[in-house]
């Protein structure tokens, strides 16, 4: 059962099952790279009055004894429903809205639901090693499917061209899987994890 905080912005209700801190372990590997175990903590934060979730993830390599070895990556980003932006929204930049927000009720948000009972979402994720991903996808109940729409890399970043991610709530745990196309390889399994919600 998913409990929804009544103070959550109506636009975040389809994503509300993500809100909070999650921690657990997973497996990472790719192409010719051997699989290793890692630990991870993910946080989805809903700031008051905002129609998006702030995403932060920290993953660390584990030794064979399950002890912390070294940081693998830090990710940060924004996750939100896809909808038209108008004069009721902030931006571009920090420009102040000139009208009242358009999606302040459950009825207004319901107009965004697709014919197959899902909501379109977008997620922007930034990595510390010169990669930024813009994902497009869907949330349908407690499952999210994302694929990269844009991958931007700095001139010093390793070759990385596409990825898909899946997140799901199974038995109260957050499970996810990440496939990627990088280093001259086609889209293939990269990592997955099972995380428990922290109180």
From TrEMBL:
Catalytic activity: peroxynitrite = nitrate
InterPro entries: Calycin, Nb(III)_bact/plant, Nitrobindin, THAP4-like_heme-bd
EC main group: isomerase
Keywords tagged on the record: Heme, Iron, Isomerase, Metal-binding
GO molecular function: heme binding; metal ion binding; peroxynitrite isomerase activity
Cofactor(s) needed for function: heme b
Keyword Heme: yes
Renumbered ranges of motif GXWXGXG: 20-26
Enzyme Commission number(s): 5.99.-.-
Family classification: Belongs to the nitrobindin family.
Purpose: Heme-binding protein able to scavenge peroxynitrite and to protect free L-tyrosine against peroxynitrite-mediated nitration, by acting as a peroxynitrite isomerase that converts peroxynitrite to nitrate. Therefore, this protein likely plays a role in peroxynitrite sensing and in the detoxification of reactive nitrogen and oxygen species (RNS and ROS, respectively). Is able to bind nitric oxide (NO) in vitro, but may act as a sensor of peroxynitrite levels in vivo.
Protein name as catalogued: Peroxynitrite isomerase
Biological source species: Brevibacterium casei S18
Source species taxonomy: Bacteria, Bacillati, Actinomycetota, Actinomycetes, Micrococcales
């Amino acid at each position: 059962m998913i409990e929804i905080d009544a103070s959550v912005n109506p636009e975040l209700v389809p994503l509300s099952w993500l809100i909070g801190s999650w921690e657990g372990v997973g497996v990472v590997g790719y192409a010719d790279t051997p699989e290793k175990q890692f630990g991870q903590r993910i946080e989805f934060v809903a700031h008051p009055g905002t129609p998006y979730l702030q995403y932060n993830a920290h993953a660390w390599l584990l030794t064979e004894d399950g002890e912390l070895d070294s940081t693998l990556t830090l990710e940060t980003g924004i996750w939100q429903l896809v909808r038209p932006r108008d004069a009721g929204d902030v931006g571009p930049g920090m420009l102040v809205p000139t009208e009242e927000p358009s999606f302040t009720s459950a009825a207004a948000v319901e107009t965004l639901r697709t014919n197959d009972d899902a909501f379109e979402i977008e997620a922007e994720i930034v990595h510390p090693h010169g990669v930024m991903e813009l994902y497009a996808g869907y949330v349908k109940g407690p499952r999210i499917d994302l694929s990269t729409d844009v991958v931007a890399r700095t001139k010093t970043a390793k070759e990385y061209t596409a990825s898909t991610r899946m997140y799901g709530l199974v038995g109260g745990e957050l499970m996810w899987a990440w496939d990627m196309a990088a280093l001259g390889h086609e889209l293939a399994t990269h990592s997955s994890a099972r995380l428990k919600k922290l109180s």
